[in-house]
Amino acid sequence: LNRGVCAWSYSSLFAFASHSSIIIIDTQNLSLVQTLDEHKAMVTAISWCSVPLHIDLDSPSSLLLASGDLH
Which of 12, 32, 47, 54 has a CA positioned 20 to 30 A from the CA of residue 6? Predict the structure, then answer.
């Protein structure tokens, strides 16, 4: 089971696993941000990168979410 597989970001995003999908919620306005469904097996771990990524100086910082499954 993937009970308890979840992670909070520093920018108020909450990610949690639901079988082989990951759901990302904005906790400030309680809206769905994205659903990630590329895993082929049950998600067993998720973690946000602890520092913002600065890929492009003209755009805001990006967030990185790592995840793993049973395969």
Answer: 54
The amino acid occupying position 18 is: S
State the pairing for strand pair 13-18/43-48. unpaired
- Answer whether 18's CB lies under 8 Å from 44's CB: no
Per-chain mean pLDDT for the chain? 88
Give residue for tokens 């067993």.
44
Q: Which pLDDT does position 11 carry in this prediction?
A: 84
**pLDDT single digits (tens) 14-24:** 999 999 999 99
